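Me: Here is a favour to ask of a fellow structure person. Could you put it straight underneath, so I can go through it closely?

Assistant:
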Amino acid sequence: MKIFYIANVRLPTEKAHGRQIMKMSESLAKAGEDLELIIPSRRNPNFKNINPFDYYQINQTFKIKRLKSFDPVFILGWPAGLYIKFQTIFFVLSLTIYLIFKKDTRKSVFYTRDEILLPLLSIFNKKIVWEVHALPKKMKFLKPFLSRVEKLVVLTQSIKDRLIVLGLAENKILVSPDAVDLEIFGINLDKSQAREQWQLPKDKIILGYTGTYQTKGMDKGLSDIFKALKILKTKRSDLFFVALGGLPNEIIKYQKLAEGFGVSDIISLLSPVDQKKLAVFQQACDILLMPFPETTHFSFYMSPLKMFEYLAAARPIIASDLPSIREILDNKVALLVKPGDANDLAEKIESLANQPKLAADIAVSAKAISVHYSWEERAKKIYNFLCG
């Protein structure tokens, strides 16, 4: 089976979706599929002349086809949304030309995360798979084209439930959350050795967070972490927080925020690193945090890569008690906190800091379930669904 994975993204990218797309492409190809990843030729000065396969440290088991597409970077400073709208128009034009002259597309499968491409793809093929990461606001526009989509892969049960309400058949929808590279993140490294590599204090309880600090302009919980640290700072002096993965503008913004809360002396905000260094960082931590706020996106749509990486790291996790999180985590593998409640977050941090056995038990349970969430397992599940 030939799969065309079509994604309107720039690769490499510092954002998590790039890694997710590359890992899924690799895993589907490893499962025996002939896969071609089609992307636009978008510019990114931060990754000039960097090969996506090298950046994401994955095997070159599939082909990447970059379509020549005008990238209107000169309008990046214009009102929000205009750049992506113009860029998408140019990519759709390039993709249309490519598919017109591409042979045997009707015998292939079109796989995409981009709902905006569904109308175009339905012209060229009946075998379309839409991987749904969020439901767009304008579902009425998409509804006529959803009947032409052969199958849907969704990240959460909440997304599936909402699609069924819209009239889609249950057997057309597979719930398949995100996953983790166990070879990279499943390492077992001595904590002191990991801290040496990262030059982190050995006499502190290290609280860790990985990934960007915002998504879709929304805070991902760092402000609540700062509030909790402010509460805890009056009680103890053995805590140190490190947030690894911030973009330059995010680091500047959140450094000022930390100063406002009076906790800038017990935090460190760091830029993204490659996957292997990220895995070592997680081994250096005592507690891993992801206190997402309660919004529609975080509550029902997300399946964060960091959640599965945290599980594989065998470190105790503190996460928000949200429907999307509860699909994967329970009180055996994490401590769940009320979203937006800094006092509850502070209490949970102190519980783990004061109870080493509780922390160790949670870490062991987390590690045990991580094996069910590898990219290979996800690819097999999706492959069997496509063939069914």
Summary: DSSP finds 17 helices and 15 strands in the chain. The mean pLDDT is 94. Residues 182-372 form a domain with the Rossmann fold fold (CATH 3.40.50.2000). The first strand starts at residue 2 and ends at 6.
